[in-house]
Design goal:
Blueprint lengths: L2 H4 L5 H7 L8 E2 L5 H13 L3 H7 E2 L5 H34 L4 E3 L1 H7 L13 E5 L4 H10 L3 E2 L20 E2 L5 E5 L14 H6 L2 E2 L7 E2 L2 H15 L7 H13 L7 H7 L2 H14 L7 H10 L32 H16 L6 H25 L1
Parallel strand pairs: 1-2, 4-7
Antiparallel strand pairs: 3-4, 5-6, 6-7, 8-9
Helix pairs in contact: 3-5, 4-5, 9-10, 10-12, 12-13
Length: about 375
């Protein structure tokens, strides 16, 4: 993380800017210092929110440099998105041709439905869900289309998929990243994924692209909340709130919510909190005291805006290619988690010398990072 970001206190002005997409009407951006502008650009780029900022804010001449940088970010992300769209066509054509039942998740599904306007919502990767018994066949299709595991050390296999909820991240020559899921919840929380079956059984053709299959809106909402709160502790920034706001506007009174599913996933309170916040802010031109309080509750366990000398942004707030250790209480639990995740990530047997080489190397790398972080703070 750039050194400047550690020295800036994120006051209400900056937080309001980052949440401006939710407000009623255009947000008039106040003057920023040079350091604040650098931080805005950094946050915008890391969390892919350039489109939201440009759509929601009114800038003046004093923001010329800032606007140019954010526009440059959006241009780069638009070019990337165009490549992803072409890859999506190839993927869907081949999956449909092989009768492999599937759905796309999160940003891809939202954009395929036209829920966000063009050039606003960007994604880091493609999330693709298939049934477990079709996992090998889907993987073979992706391989023929030029996808391979991002980490060159990962073996060309799908054998070790009993831990986690997706195969190691894949990539093609366009640098399009893809995660192939057979479930979307952690097996440590649910033996049978409550979401995957509902998503596939209730899949539908997207509203804007007839070749793309999406989950029903109620399961899409449940997945957004589960993914944001349970899997990432809201460390992925405000995009989940932007998605919910856009869904509520797009579907209006027809927007259905599966309360039973939210309860089963243990996220009913989180959904109610987000719904209350989003609908309240939509009536405000600036964040009210009540809205600020709700925002603090939503992000109370999040580190996406913790940028100070006392705390650092976790790696998981930006990159999600590896399975992370979040809340395993004991050292033994952490060790067992690491052993199982290593097998999945590298697709190697416990009895393979490569497994232990990768495992020990990763442990030493993690220890080195911890020591470096501690020494920096001291």
């Amino acid at each position: 993380m750039p050194s400047f970001a550690k020295k800036i206190k994120l006051d209400d002005t900056l937080k309001e800017l980052f949440l401006s997409f939710l407000l009623n009407g255009k947000y008039e951006a106040p003057p920023f210092s040079r350091e604040q502008e650098k931080l805005v650009c950094y946050i915008s780029e890391q969390f892919l929110i350039s489109g939201f900022i440009l759509d929601a804010c009114d800038f003046n001449l004093s923001h010329k440099s800032l606007v140019e940088q954010i526009k440059h970010q959006r241009k780069s992300q638009l070019i990337k998105q165009m490549l992803v769209k072409n890859d999506l066509k190839d993927i869907t054509h081949n999956l449909n041709g092989r009768c492999i039942e599937h759905v796309f998740l999160k940003g891809v599904a939202l954009n395929a439905d036209g829920i966000h306007s063009s050039g606003i919502r960007f994604s880091r990767d493609i999330d693709l869900l298939v049934r477990l018994d079709l996992l090998d066949e889907a993987y073979d299709v992706l391989k023929r289309l030029g996808f391979k595991y991002l980490n060159p050390k990962t073996q060309d296999s799908t054998k070790y998929h009993h831990f986690g909820h997706h195969l190691p991240e894949m990539i093609n020559e366009n640098n399009t990243k893809l995660e192939l899921h057979w479930r979307v919840t952690r097996p440590s929380e649910f033996k049978d994924c409550p979401l995957a079956e509902k998503m596939l059984d209730g899949r539908r053709i997207s509203k804007a692209h007839p070749h793309i299959f999406c989950p029903k809106i109620e399961t899409m909402i449940a997945h957004l909340i589960y993914h944001g709160f349970k899997q990432h502790r809201m460390n992925l920034g405000p995009t989940i709130l932007f998605d919910l706001a856009a869904i509520f506007v797009f579907f209006g009174e027809e927007c259905s919510v599966d309360r039973d599913l939210l309860k089963r996933l243990g996220i009913e309170k989180e959904f109610d909190l987000c719904e209350r916040f989003v609908k309240r802010v939509r009536t405000e031109s600036r964040l009210s005291a009540e809205s600020k309080l709700l925002s603090k509750k939503i992000f109370k366990n999040s580190r996406w805006l913790v940028l100070s000398n006392e705390s650092k942004v976790y790696e998981s707030s930006i990159g999600t290619s590896r399975i992370k250790i979040f809340d395993n209480p004991s050292l033994l639990s952490r060790l067992l988690f690491k052993i199982r995740s290593t097998r999945t990530f590298y697709q190697v047997s416990y009895f393979s010398p490569k497994f232990w080489l990768f495992f020990i190397t990763d442990i030493l790398t993690s220890l080195k990072k911890v020591i470096l972080a501690v020494s920096t703070r001291l």
